[in-house]
Write a structure and sequence with these properties.
This protein is α+β, with helices and mostly antiparallel strands. The protein has a single domain, classed as BolA-like (GMP Synthetase, Chain A, domain 3, 2-Layer Sandwich). The chain is about 35% helix and about 25% strand. It contains 3 helices and 3 strands. Strands 1-2-3 form a 3-stranded mixed beta sheet. A hairpin with a 6-residue loop joins strand 1 and strand 2. The longest helix is centred in the middle third of the chain and has 12 residues. The mean pLDDT is about 90.
Length: about 80
Amino acid sequence: MDPEQLKSLIEAGIPGAQVTVRDLRGTGDHFRVEVTSSSFEGISLIKQHQMVYAAVGEELTNAVHALSIHTETSEE
C-alpha cells in the first residue's frame, strides 16, 4: 500500500483529521501514523486507536502488516 492511500483512508474515516504516514520499511506494509483530530476530545486512547483502525478497515488485514498509531487531540 502507498502511504498516500493509507492517509486518504484515515482522512475519509475521520473527517477533519490531520494525518501523517511514514512507511517504516519501504515495503508498503509497515506504517507509523500520526493522527490529530478534535473528534478525539474526551475519549480514551483505546477508542481513539479503534477509530483509526475502523478508518483503515479491511486494508488492515489485507495490505497492512503492522500499524503503529500515535493520536493527539487538536483544539479546533
